[in-house]
Amino acid sequence: MPQITYVHSNGTRQTLDVPVGTSVMRGAILNGIDGIVAECGGEMMCATCHVYVEEDQLARTPTQSDDEKAMLEFTASERRPNSRLSCQLVVTPELDGLVVYLPETQV
Amino acid sequence: MPEPVVAVVGTGQAGFQAAASLRQDGFAGRIILIGDEPVLPYQRPPLSKSYLAGESGLDELWLRPESFYAQHQIDLLAGETVTAIDRTQRRVQLGSGGKLSWDHLILATGARFRPLAMPGAELDGVLPLRTLADADTLRERLDQARDVVVVGAGFIGLEFASVAIAGGAAARIIEVTQHPMGRVVSATISRFFTDAHRRWGAEVLLGTGVARILGTGGRVSGVETSDGQHLPADLVLICVGVIPNAELAREAGLNVDNGIVVDQCLATADPAILAIGDCANFPTPFATGRVRLESVQNAVDQARCVAAHISGKLEPYDKVPWFWSDQGDLKLQIAGITAGHDAAVLRGDPGSGRFSVFCYRAGRLIGVESVNQTADHVAARRLLAGDPGLTPQQAADESYDLRAHTRRLAAR
Fold first, then answer.
1. For B60, which of A26, A39, A44 is closest by C-beta distance?
2. b/e per residue A71-96 (b: at least 16 CB within 10 A)
3. Of A103, A98, A107, A105, whose CA–CA distance to A27 is shortest?
């Protein structure tokens, strides 16, 4: 099963097995990672599952849709070039080893 | 001093969020979350969308896994009812017999399906869609259904119809007004979605009601409309709105008028009792009077507001309302409350399948309805949070940069 590493804003790292087809957001929710809020449940109506993807892994992640780009305007923490909505990062074998950094706040 | 206790009645999105936000805000007392459904708190929107369609399962439905509640010391009483509120003693009476004391009581009791009182409503195959149990029944029935009749063309009815058609059933939608979703959207959006459903294969009957539901051997077989048409049916979905669950509040002597009446800080006349989400009737700067809103946004933001209130930060509730609905390949996103608009302008061409309707009242932007046009929706949420200062001419001009406009507002 692909492994995804979540780095909390205080630097703590947590590595989880996330099944293929599950989003990085859902993987966090199911494992009690509090740094992801996911208010809308993955409908791209909010930006409370915001993460920063490890810079050199960005190319491996799925392409950003226009909707995701638009909704990233609502991040509570600073939007950066490596900002993503984790509900849109659906885990594939290629994403094994992905590292995402959780922002300080989601709301 | 004994630790303070917050009791939350209702385990929907609002109740769950209130409990979660209290902990996040550092509330150190006891939190009791009480709900009558015997399952973990779950998200309701997918019940008429991906969950109904079988595209997502229970793991995606739970708001949080079971371990969350223990981890955050939230006492979840799932499958428990509250039968009375004793305001003098500050206690609630539980259906199972016990009593619980509280210092703050949050009513997040939600709303329930509004039944249709008419002959045949009791037949097997005449179903509501409100709870997870309802959705599970419908998912099963949809597998075999060939002729589906949807009574009431609101968000849920239309979402259900599009799932039924995608699953191979014939769908007929009966709406007593001329405007599907007419209570919440402009005539333009209503017409656009009516046309879309017809294109997808649904029969949409407007301006007619249900005279009676027909059956054979206790099972539904058809629907007779008030204008005399006979529609075949092996599954009838009743979705003509909801009734706010306000009885507990009323019996406790609190003011109830289309929901539990609260002030701008979401408190009832009893300052220790708050009401949030679908059951709360509150004053809002986004409409001319009081409103009661049924949405995730309203549930979540009101929950955060009362959690902050209990944690000592008393602020009026003033969040921009937003809503969404997925029907077929169309995503409808609404910012603000557009009911009561006196003028509307189009931005974009409905023929392209991507456009927005900007709704005005007395010259001021009050809401925006977007179809497959998230960028407009995002801009609208920003605009409505302050004085939008956007003229109908600017809104209608696609070359006018809304993002730049919102930035200028923010910089003021």
1. A26
2. bbbbbebebeebbbbbbbbbbeeebe
3. A98
Q: What is the mean pLDDT of each run of 10 residues along chain B (412 residues)?
A: 92 98 96 98 96 93 96 97 98 97 98 94 97 97 96 97 96 98 96 98 97 97 97 97 97 98 98 98 96 98 97 95 96 97 98 97 97 96 95 97 90 78
Give yes or no: residues B248 and B201 share one domain: no
Residue by residue, DSSP assigns chain A as --EEEEE-TTS-EEEEE--TTSBHHHHHHHTT-TT---TTSSSSS--TTEEEE-GGGGGGSPPPPHHHHHHGGG-SSPP-TTEEEGGG-B--GGGTTEEEEPPS---
CATH code for the domain in which residue B369 is found: 3.30.390.30
What's the CATH number where B68 sits?
A: 3.50.50.60
Q: Which of A45, A49, A65 to mutate to test the interface with B (most CBs of B within 10 A)?
A: A45
Contact assessment for residue B160 and residue B239, using Cβ atoms and an 8 Å cutoff: yes
Q: Report d(CA B103, CA B291) in Å as an integer.
A: 27
Closest CA to B128 of B242, B296, B278, B42: B242
B377 in contact with A, Cβ within 8 Å: yes
- Test A30 with B296 for CB contact under 8 angstroms: no
Tell me the Ramachandran region of residue A99: left when phi exceeds 0, alpha when psi lies from -120 to 50, beta otherwise.
beta
Q: Between β-strands B322-327 and B290-291, what pairing exists: parallel, antiparallel or unpaired?
A: unpaired
Which whole-number Å values give the CA distances from B258 to A96, B262, B278, B404, in the listed order?
51, 11, 10, 40
Domains of chain A, CATH where assigned: 3-101 (3.10.20.30)
User: Rounded to whole angstroms, how far apart are CA atoms B388 and B78?
Assistant: 43
Tell me which residue has tokens 């993955």. A42
CA dist., res. B288 & res. B277, Å (int): 19
- CB neighbour burial string for A41-68, b if at least 16 within 10 angstroms, e if fewer: bbbbbbbbbbbbbbeeeeeebeeeeebb
What is the residue range of B108's domain?
5-112+243-310
Q: Does B143 touch chain A (CB under 8 A)?
A: no
Q: How far apart are CA B131 and CA B111, in angstroms?
A: 10
Query: B387 touching A, CB under 8 A?
Result: no
* Domain tally, chain B: 3
Helix/strand number for chain B, H first, E second: 11, 26
Q: Model ipTM?
A: 0.94
Q: How large is the average pLDDT for residues A47-70?
A: 96
Give the bridge partners for B343, in sequence order: B360
